[in-house]
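User: I'll paste a sequence; please echo it back and then give the predicted structure.

Assistant: Echoing your sequence first, then the prediction.
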Amino acid sequence: MAQKHKRNDKLFDKWSLVHVVSSGALAWLIGPLPAFIIVTLWEPFEIFILSPVLAKLGITFGYETWRNSLSDIAFNTIGILLAYGLQNI
């Protein structure tokens, strides 16, 4: 029987730093606005499309609540702002 996983509802977790660094790197590479659009659209894609497809394959990924997704977007925004600020020093 498949194990029921609890959705990630944390505001801060091990992935928060990953969101800051990866979104900052993306902003540095393609610019802050395109990076913000990509990382913001990624969260609903992760919850509604990617997570269910991977779950059918037995892979738990992106199994999070909207609360966690919104905090991910906040950490992405911090990373983008940091990259933008560092570029303009």
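The chain has a mean pLDDT of 89. The longest helix spans residues 32-56.
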